[in-house]
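As a warm-up, study this chain.
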Amino acid sequence: MSNNLKPWFREDLTRAIMSVYFSSLISRPKKQSNDEYRAGFAAALSSVAIAIGINPESILENDDIRILRENARQQ
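Now compare it with the structure written out below.
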C-alpha cells in the first residue's frame, strides 16, 4: 500500500460532500413525491459527514433536515 496519498482535511471533505449534495438538488425533480429519495440521499451524505466530524446541518437544506428528523421519529 502506498503512503503517498494526499491528506484530506475537513474543509476539503466538506466541499466535496456539498458538491455532491448540491448536484443532487439540481438534478432531482421538484415534486414532493420524492421525499424517500431525498431522505435516503441526505441520510447517506449525513452519515459520511458525521464519520469525518462535519455537522450535517451545515451542508443540508432545512427541508432535508426536517425530512430526516421526521423519518427518525417514525422509526
